[in-house]
Design a protein that fits this description.
The chain is an alpha/beta fold. The protein is built from 15 helices and 25 strands. The longest helix is centred in the N-terminal third of the chain and has 18 residues.
């Protein structure tokens, strides 16, 4: 009842940079490449300059005809200006719909159709690749960040138009659309509103208070809602920022060494790549006080390497568990002191006052501690619906409880342990994730290992090594003797594995390619180790 009487709060992306600039002034933001929307602005900007650029872009969009509540799809080459365009769209009350640059044309066409003739912000390269087979004439209008052929409007041509006051939507109105990872098929369009986004932001601000003002380095998907909440926290506390598009250690390492961030967040698979930076000259990770990890499980070996790289007194790795549809529903952390006892399957506990977690059996009854079941969550941060697929949304809700699609259990103290995705379960393996963690711990040269269903439903390890060096057959055989029976491993290049925008591996697609003989491998015969 109290919540109904109090005014509803909202997290408004269009005001985020403006409020940060008013609070902290010219705190610096460093980019690893110039902005496509402002290539002459360079790579060293401040909160004030970015707030002004968002305001300018918002005015250009209004001049082009974009109006409040209209959908604006953003699908362009990966760069930080995706963020600025998102905030600009939001600033005039329109609804940004963020589409990953990694989508293929067929999927992009489906999602654009579900948006019902949206405005489209894109670039020449996307029009000539991802969107080349998509009928963009169905869009309300096509705006480009560069010069592009056809019936398009270049945003540069609208420079200098009059600025507009910001538009603030009702806290319960749709204000942002992102899409799910698509690891199990066509991604779903998740509809967020300011109120649910605020309920995600507040607990993350509380968690981030201990590191307020620390310089932060981020390499994350700019089309994922998690990025905007983390950015909201960092801007609120006035952190200098290093925003990276290219995660290659040869590129990111020198920038990290030069800026020595106290906060680092990226995707778990990027952290595996950055293990190479743990002992790198100039200590690119030596000043890290807090690592952030979300999107996917992080492996114990990676946790140990990252924490050992820091020279801070008590570095921590914070892990958040959740989905695009819910935001974080559980949190936990690792310390250097406990790194050797990391329980990778332990994803943390619920967020007091904001989320509740339960594990249920096939009949929907709550499982006792230690018993495996389906993970469900009740959260104030849940999305409004799936655009164009409300029936899929309804199937995942049971009297306010959201089905996460994961299997796990809770211990007697309420901590949650994640075992597998429901669709990825293999009858002969209790937890494929647990086996993968163990294999990565036993092989320092493994970049990735994914266990999927083989053509005969057998568990097949798909492995990637650093430098694509072949595994030693005898070492593999000895290392897997005490593990569930596995088929002979198949070796691939990491770059050839199908992945999402957040570098999640598409396990079902790998299994399909394996069965069809379409998976690119490093040898014509299965690798024996």
């Amino acid at each position: 009842m109290l919540q109904r009487l109090l005014p509803e709060r909202g997290f408004y992306l269009g005001l985020m940079f403006q409020e940060a600039a008013a609070r902290h002034g010219r705190v610096r933001v460093t980019l690893d490449r110039p902005l496509d929307v402002a290539p002459d602005a360079g790579t060293d900007l401040g909160y004030t300059e970015l707030a002004d650029l968002v305001d300018d872009l918002a005015a250009r969009l209004w001049s082009a005809g974009v109006r409040p509540s209209e959908h604006v799809a953003i699908l362009k080459g990966d760069n930080v200006d995706i963020v600025l365009l998102t905030c600009a769209v939001s600033r005039i009350g329109a609804v940004p719909a963020l589409l990953s640059p990694s989508l293929d044309g067929q999927v992009a066409a489906v999602l654009l159709d579900r948006l019902h003739a949206p405005w489209l912000i894109t670039d020449r390269a996307s029009l000539e690749s991802t969107l080349s087979t998509v009928d963009t004439t169905l869009a309300r209008g096509v705006l480009t960040v560069d010069e592009a052929p056809g019936n398009t409007i270049a945003l540069a041509a609208l420079a200098g138009v009059a600025r507009r006051p910001a538009v603030r939507l009702h806290p319960r109105e749709p204000s942002l659309i992102t899409h799910s990872s698509g690891t199990t098929g066509i991604p779903k369009l998740a509809v967020h509103c300011p109120h649910t986004m605020w309920n995600r932001l507040v607990p993350q601000q509380a968690l981030g208070r201990a590191t307020r003002g620390e310089a932060a380095a981020l390499h994350m998907s700019f089309v994922h809602s998690r990025f905007y909440h983390l950015l909201g926290v960092l801007l609120h506390f006035g952190s200098p920022l290093l925003l990276l598009v290219d995660p290659d250690p040869a590129h990111a390492g020198p920038l990290l060494a030069a800026h020595r961030p106290g906060i680092v967040e990226t995707h778990p698979n990027t952290y595996v790549l950055w293990e190479d930076l743990a002992d790198a000259p100039n200590g690119p990770l030596s000043n890290v006080r807090a690592y952030g990890s979300t999107f996917d499980a992080i492996h114990p070996r990676t946790v140990r390497r990252l924490l050992s790289a820091s020279r801070r007194r008590d570095p921590r790795l914070m892990q958040l568990y959740g989905q695009s549809e819910t935001g974080p529903i559980a949190f936990g952390w690792y310390t250097r002191r406990g790194a050797d006892r990391v329980e990778a399957r332990r994803v943390g506990t619920g967020i007091p006052g904001f989320t509740r977690i339960r594990v249920v059996d096939e009949r929907g009854r709550t499982c006792p501690p230690g018993a495996t079941g389906a993970i469900e969550a009740r959260t104030r941060g849940r999305i409004l619906t799936y655009l164009g697929a409300p029936e899929s949304y309804a199937r995942q809700v049971d009297r306010g409880w959201w089905r996460m699609g994961d299997m796990g259990y809770r211990d007697r103290w309420g901590a949650l342990y994640l075992l597998d995705r429901e669709v990825d379960q293999i009858s002969t393996v209790d937890s494929t994730l647990e086996v993968e963690d163990e294999l990565l711990s036993r092989f320092a040269d493994l970049r990735e290992v994914i266990i999927v269903h083989g053509p005969g439903r057998e568990p097949v390890p798909v492995v990637c090594t650093r430098g694509n060096e072949p595994l030693d057959p005898d070492s593999w055989r000895r290392a897997t003797e005490d593990l569930p029976a596995l088929a002979e491993p198949v070796q691939c290049r990491f770059e050839d594995l199908p992945r999402t925008a957040t570098w999640k591996i598409k396990r079902l697609e790998i299994a399909r390619q394996l069965a069809a003989g379409e998976l690119p491998t490093l040898s014509t015969a299965p690798v024996g180790g």
